[in-house]
Design brief:
By secondary structure, this protein is of the alpha+beta class. The chain has four helices and ten strands. The strands form five sheets. Strands 1-2 form a two-stranded antiparallel ribbon. The chain is globular, with a radius of gyration of 19 Å. The relative contact order is 0.10.
């Protein structure tokens, strides 16, 4: 569109785009996307980097995203074979195959998740059906919105609306 944007509004549009953990909506004016290449000279470097990281995350389909098993930062895409992804935020290593601790030289099912999953079962925790992220619900309804974007039922573990 041909609208002139106030710099404070422009910054707020990009800040809102990166604020939501499970939703990413690029900034728009009159249903026309405001491209980062046009706005970046008016935004601080930290916000530009955060926006670029969020764009990279949401270019990967929700079911293929891998998050750090320790701090939940986005790491990259799922892989069929075990491979190690290193988190730049907490330096932990995560397996791109199963999403758990990295386990070089071991198949994913041999990675030693048994004790953690046993504890989760004892405490009634649930895993996201899409990314396998472990979730503890403390209160509220059973409708879960995972960091990967998937929605599931905390009571049965199925995709939301399928139980």
């Amino acid at each position: 569109c041909a609208h002139a944007l106030d710099l404070a509004c422009l910054r707020e549009m990009f800040e809102n785009a990166v604020a939501a953990k499970s939703l990413f909506e690029p900034p728009q004016c009159c249903h026309v996307r405001v491209e980062l290449s046009i706005a970046d000279e008016h935004l601080d470097r930290v916000l530009v980097r955060e926006y670029q990281e969020k764009m990279r995350e949401f270019q990967v389909p929700a079911g293929d995203r891998v998050y750090c098993h320790s701090c939940s930062s986005f790491l990259g895409s799922h892989s069929l074979a075990p491979s190690t992804l290193r988190c730049v935020n907490c330096v932990e290593r995560t397996c791109a195959g199963c999403g758990g601790h990295a386990h070089p030289g071991e198949a994913c099912q041999e990675a030693g998740e048994g004790p953690v999953l046993d504890m989760a079962a004892e405490r009634g925790w649930q895993r996201c059906v899409s990314c396998k992220f472990l979730v503890e619900r403390r209160e509220g309804c059973p409708h879960m919105n995972c960091i990967c974007g998937a929605q599931f039922c905390y009571l049965c573990g199925s995709l939301w609306g399928k139980c």
